[in-house]
Amino acid sequence: MNEYIEIIHARENNLKNVSLNIPKNKITIFTGVSGSGKSSIVFDTIAQEAGRQLNETYDSFTRLFLPK
């Protein structure tokens, strides 16, 4: 099993081809100046992929009852 969440060439909002490995099962803190892309990494990239993977684990009937 992969021990890292691997992001390759992320290009959301202020991110320009950012690649990084984030350790799983650990607390990770994103810091930086305003406008550096912290929220883009967390909300637009990681959370979106986590939601996609979660929805994949349920059949289509069960997905009807999941919160949006």
UniProtKB/TrEMBL annotation:
Major site of localization recorded for this protein: cytoplasm
GO terms, molecular function: ATP binding; DNA binding; nuclease activity
Any one GO cellular component localisation term in the record: cytoplasm
Keywords of this entry: ATP-binding, Cytoplasm, DNA damage, DNA excision, DNA repair, DNA-binding, Excision nuclease, Nucleotide-binding, Repeat
Subcellular location per the Swiss-Prot or TrEMBL entry: Cytoplasm
InterPro entries listed in its UniProt record: P-loop_NTPase (IPR027417)
Protein family (similarity comment): Belongs to the ABC transporter superfamily. UvrA family.
Listed PANTHER family: DRUG RESISTANCE ABC TRANSPORTER, UVRABC SYSTEM PROTEIN A
Official protein name in the record: UvrABC system protein A
